[in-house]
Write a structure and sequence with these properties.
The chain has 4 helices and 8 strands, in the order βαββαβββαββα. It is of the alpha+beta class. The protein has one domain: Molybdopterin biosynthesis MoaE subunit (Aldehyde Oxidoreductase, domain 3, Alpha-Beta Complex), CATH 3.90.1170.40. Strands 1-4-6-2 form a 4-stranded mixed beta sheet, sandwiched between helices. The chain has a 4-stranded antiparallel beta sheet with strand order 5-3-7-8. A hairpin with a 2-residue loop joins strand 7 and strand 8. Helix 2 runs antiparallel to helix 3 and helix 3 packs across helix 4. The relative contact order is 0.23. Keywords: Molybdenum cofactor biosynthesis. Pfam families: MoaE.
Length: about 150
């Protein structure tokens, strides 16, 4: 099973993961990562913008790479766009495989790419002011592991 989506509205990861797991009978392991808007002091909102003709096709291409690299049965990749508030999920990536290591590595691989080499522009509103957020050097180092 393969489910790749962009969402403009809040989502509940649990309502996605259960059906995803059930759609992959015979799996040996499922690994899931859910990223949320941090609730640091002063953070009011996070906004993700994107270039629509490129974003979803590029996420599909990332899924292709994950399937080629790891022995997966299924992959769920859901990403929010628009304005979000502290505690709201931004991203959910779940991988199903016969063996846990493929599931764990696939989620890590997808998240490293979504975080550093993705098709999103991110800014946060803190104390009433918007500022752009760039990937950190650690994010780029994480991405380098996969080359």
């Amino acid at each position: 099973m393969r489910d790749i989506r962009l969402l403009t509205e809040p989502f509940n990861p649990g309502t996605l993961i259960g059906p995803f797991t059930n759609a992959n009978p015979g799996l040996g392991g499922v690994c899931t990562f859910v990223g949320e808007v941090r609730g640091e002091v002063g953070i009011e909102a996070l906004e993700l913008s994107h270039y629509e003709p490129l974003t979803l096709p590029s996420m599909e291409e990332l899924a292709d790479k994950a399937f080629a690299r790891f022995d997966l049965m299924g992959l769920l990749m859901v990403h929010r766009i628009g304005v979000m508030h502290p505690g709201e999920p931004i991203v959910c990536v779940s991988a199903a495989a016969k063996h846990r290591r493929d599931a764990i590595n696939a989620v890590d691989f997808c998240m490293d790419h979504l975080k550093s080499a993705a098709w999103f522009w991110k800014r946060e509103k803190k104390d009433g002011h918007w500022r752009w957020i760039e990937p950190r050097s650690e994010d780029y180092a994480d991405l380098e592991r996969w080359k």
